[in-house]
Amino acid sequence: MAFSGALTLTDLNDFITPSQACIKPVEQSNPAPVHDPGAALTQIQVDSTGSYYEVSAVGRTDVDAKKLQTAEISLNDCLACSGCITSAESVLITLQSHTEVLNFLESNPILPAAAHRTPVLSIAPQSLASLAAALSSSSARPVGPAEVLARVRAFAIRVLGFEHVFDTTFARHIALLEHAREFSERRSGKGKEKGVAPLPMLASACPGWVCYAEKTHAEMLPFISAAKSPQQVMGTLVKEWMGAKWGRTPDQIYHVTVMPCYDKKLEASREDFCNDTYATRDVDCVITTGELDLLMREKGWDLSAPIPEELSPPSPSLNPLAIPELLAHPGSSSGSYLHSLIAALVASSQTPLTHTVRTLRNSDYEEHTVMDESGATVFRGARCYGFRNLQNLVRKVGREAGLQVGRGAAGRVGALRRARKAGPESEQEKGYDYVEVMACPGGCVNGGGQLRPMLGQEGAALESLPATEDGLEVQAPSAKWGDRAWTKKVEEAYWGAPPTPPPTPPPEVIGLEEREEEKRRRADRLAVELLYEMCSPGQDPPGDAAWDVHMGERADEMRRRLFRTQYRAVEGEVVGLAVKW
Amino acid sequence: MSGEVFNPNPTVFAPTKASRVAAFAKRNSLWLDDADHEHEEEDESNEPEQIDQDEIFELIRSISDPEHRSMTLEQLAVVSAPQITFDSQVPDRLTVEFTPTVPHCGMSTFIGLSIRVRLLRSLPQRFKVDVRVKPGSHQSEHALNKQLNDKERVAAALENPALVEVLEQCLSTAGRHDHDHSV
Amino acid sequence: MEEDLPYNVQLVTQLEGHDDRAWHVAWNPARPILASCSADKTVRLYNYRSTTDPDTATAPLEFSLNTTIPTGHAKTVRAVAWSPSGKTLATASFDSNIGIWAQDEDDEEGGGPQGEWECMSLLEGHETECKSIAYSSSGTLLASCSRDKTVWVWEVHPDSDFECMGVLMEHTQDVKCVAWHPHEEVRSILASASYDDTIKLYVDDPSEDWFCFTTLTGHTSTVWSLVFSPDGRYLASGSDDLTIRIWERVQEHRWECVSVLEGHDRSIYSVSWSRGKGEGHLGWLASTGGDGLILVWKISAVPTESGRDKLSHKIISRFPAAHGVSDVNSIVWCPRQGMEDVFATAGDDGAVKVWKIAQSST
Question: How many separate domains does chain C show?
Fold first, then answer.
């Protein structure tokens, strides 16, 4: 099967890949054939294309060969099944593909037809960075995310007929605000009676991690932040908030997101993100950066060609809601979840705090400590990317929380032993308060759906070069470095070329430059406005209201519904006949 | 249960008359009955029992088809006596071939496993059995054969409670000797 | 018995006790202990000592049960491995977990570790059956593999703590065996064998990520077992295709198949390579499998005109039906000095047997 995009998930090292064939028993939608007693029985034949036909058994040519329907599996089946760890690629590709987007757009009736749906495209900043890095590497002048956004917008509107194109950083801004609000809830122990889990709080924006935890580490679920990911916040904003402003119901909008990650397709398919009343999803279709690239190529759009609009700020006609664009969230290129918490902590502290970073083994595992003047630790967090580091994190969190990690039965012996050994010295180190967890090494800029470097390009992967006669001593390591070098370029592009803001700014740089600060204030204000519009309609927010404002019980309940979600463990055992052994 | 029916409408075949086999089965029920099958079978006969095609067939013919539980593997022509062959050099090594009802049958690994387990439990230990699908009868023939003859995979499968539960159901009919099901 | 072979295989002792198939045996490299594991979920540890002067050809070894560890694994214990220090034992189970076992040293009184073997740590992460585990020669790394197609590398920390260093997803099928190169020069080499018929070799790159640097193809069915030669120049693999292949390290990161050994007529489940006794050869390779046959090969390097050694192999001993009618799942030479001619086997009959090869009196 040909994949859209340049690669399959399994090309990549250290990602959480499906380790088993799909085991989900699928429903057969064909009506059961009428059994004609005594009649010739049927056989099934496979033709050269691999299709199945049901034919009569012996010598009855009068019966038409009936083509049998190929069984299909929905993404929801994937979520409900413990068979493979994350996504069955083929399912993702067939059900949420760029051809699916094209099919929709072609069949979308033109206004003023009642059945017309408003097509909206939202693109993640990591996807913009990937495209920017690819363009920059083949052109003399570096291209930044803002130019890419302008060009993609022009393509989506002029060529494909999208009516609105956004980037998802404003949605991320809201996700970060809700995230911080949840963290302070957990930290203060507030809402414990409502079943709010203790610290550490673990990031929830990576669907690969969430899915993995649901399938194999149910004991981690209470720690995972209930705040929606930026993609799903965007879904809520587009379908509920913008939709209301446009006079469109959720089902009258077709919302496509462009994401650096295949598992975002899975996330969008979660039942929690479906609107039952309108039978529609908050995000109707997710395509990867690679798929968007393919779409542009298929339509003959040259992303490397500058367009006039890209030099001026986007015209208000394109952005009537004045949604801040390309909001920078300093810290990490995977959403800065950890840094936004630390920044909030530092900003709200009465006394000066020091923030120190320690890299453990490699750049994908950093420990962050915030101390007060007396040297007491007030916050301990980590940034932990990649499947391998994730394993160590799960072990550590489980150990610190005194939990039985995983599903094994032999654990009781180990737990017993540990309990005995855990003396007063185990109190020495403060456990983590927060961990920014991502499944991909390098984080979202290196997501499975991103563009891959072309061979021969600077920083391109060298792994496909043939081995030389003198062995692999030189070649092999550079194959890995090549990949890293490329990720580094995307990272640079993410922060805007030339590579200025370091991904991990020292604490004193946490103050932002003037323009960004203004944009950010605008975003904070807009966030509160929409919060009231959505949760407490008719009521104006108090002038000094921030995102964590109390709006009253009903409004807070509404906010919960709009900006938080939930996780559930997937049952381990499957139907006996479906067991893959 | 499993949602997909791989062959909703299988061909049903009349069972063979097996009087001689049945007679043997009664006479030698020692190793035909799982409950009585302890490790003693070698004790009474210092010269190992000669076991032929029909006797092996007798052991597996009445295993239930996982998809059509009321039918046996024999009735669906999944197994037959001629598909059981002995190594001409080493008589204790035999190959049991089976024929999936449809070439994409997702139940084939399970059927193969049920045959293997039945023989594992019933035959004296000296027998080494290869279970294979009939050449050309299944689209994943090689993969199937490989899995069915990997003792480690089989051993692990038999520690999976969900799988064993269904397996026991299909094997529960295997000791039955009334082969007069009407078609 | 059959042909005139220079050595014959003699049974030293037969150790009964497992209630189910015995899968694997492992000799403690530092202390006189033999460990075996089984589908009965236990590990049995045997002490041994030689009763007479080891210099005499007939020095009999006496084995006695030290202890049975119930393990607590929910399923079959498929493999056991000792750390080089001999203080720690690792168990790989079909329940997908790895157990780390050591003796409580609290009540140690100068006489070495005493007391009960306890589970010090449980390594989880594999999704399905764990099939094999191995400590690197320095004991700082532990590798494991599983039907989930992955190979994991763990770093051994003090206090039975482990850190995952790599999850290698290179094989397309079930991984049956992992083995470490005997010498850790600059970097350790790890090998894995799979149901996908291939062998993969890995090293860690300077930035501490593990990666596969070569894939050895040639076997036409499942590769069940791997062992490096004592000198580290060769790797032997036993397969369901009824052959043993020997791969030579021809360059730093380049391995080539130089010999194909035939002699078994059922799956080869286990191979082991020891220094052997005597001089002028590369050691003794023992093999066994589903045919119940034990074969011992002498492997030698013959200089050729091209300057490159040519490998030669010769069966020096054979023993059929080593566990009666049962399959033999594991064969392992004793690594201890002076006992190069002793090996142990584990069979489907639940028995563990210790053998010795001795020169035939012709």
Answer: 1
Taking the CA atoms of residue A407, residue A409, residue A414 and residue A416 in that order, the dihedral angle to the nearest 10 degrees is 110
Chain A positions touching B107 (Cβ under 8 A) are 577
The answer to the question of residue C78 being in a domain is: yes
> Which CATH number do you get for residue C296?
2.130.10.10
Cβ pair C222:B92 closer than 8 A: no
Confidence tier at A77 by pLDDT (50, 70, 90): low
Touching subunits of C (3+ CB pairs, under 8 Å) are A, B
A74-173+228-327 in CATH: which number?
3.40.50.1780
pLDDT in the model for residue B14: 73
Nearest chain A residue to B102 by CA distance is A44
Domain boundary assignment for chain A: 42-73, 74-173+228-327
Is the peptide bond preceding residue A499 cis, with omega within 30 degrees of 0? no
Chain A residues in contact with C253 by the CB 8 A cut-off are 467, 471-473, 476
Q: How many residues does chain B have?
A: 183
Question: Min CA distance, B141 vs chain C (Å)?
Answer: 14
Interface contact B104-A46, CB threshold 8 A: yes
Sheet holding C283-289, edge to edge: C268-274, C283-289, C294-302, C310-319
Chain B CB contacts of A579 under 8 Å are 157, 160, 162-163
- CA angle at residue A507 from A505 to A508, to 5 degrees? 100
Which candidate, C98, C33, C42, places its Cα nearest to that of C71?
Answer: C42
- Residue type at position A118: T
Does C1 fall in a domain? no
Alpha helices in A73-142 (DSSP H): 75-80, 89-95, 98-107, 125-137
Cβ burial, residue A320 (10 Å; 0-12/13-18/19+): exposed
Which chain A residues contact residue B166 at CB under 8 A? Answer: 576-577
Q: Which residue range forms the structural domain that includes residue C143? A: 7-359
Interchain contact, B151 vs C222, CB within 8 Å: no
Question: What is the ipTM for the molecules in this complex?
Answer: 0.93
Residue from the list C94, C174, C290 with its beta carbon closest to the beta carbon of B159: C94
Nearest by CB to residue C325, choosing from B126, B146, B159, is: B126
The pLDDT confidence band at residue A80, using thresholds 50, 70 and 90, is low
C305 vs C108, more confident = C305
Q: Is C4 helix (H, G, I), strand (E, B) or coil?
A: coil
Average pLDDT on A378-400 reads: 91
> Domain B19-44+53-171 falls in which CATH fold?
GMP Synthetase; Chain A, domain 3 (3.30.300)
Question: Which of A213, A243, A300, A150 has the alpha carbon at shortest distance from A533?
Answer: A243
- For residue B62, what are its two tokens? 């009445």
* Paired residues of C299 in beta bridges: C283, C313
C104 to chain A: closest CA residue: A417
* Structural Rg of chain B based on CA atoms: 16
Min Cα separation C229/chain B (Å)? 26
Which residue in chain B is spatially nearest to C129 when comparing CA positions?
B156
Residue C87: both structure tokens together: 């203080």
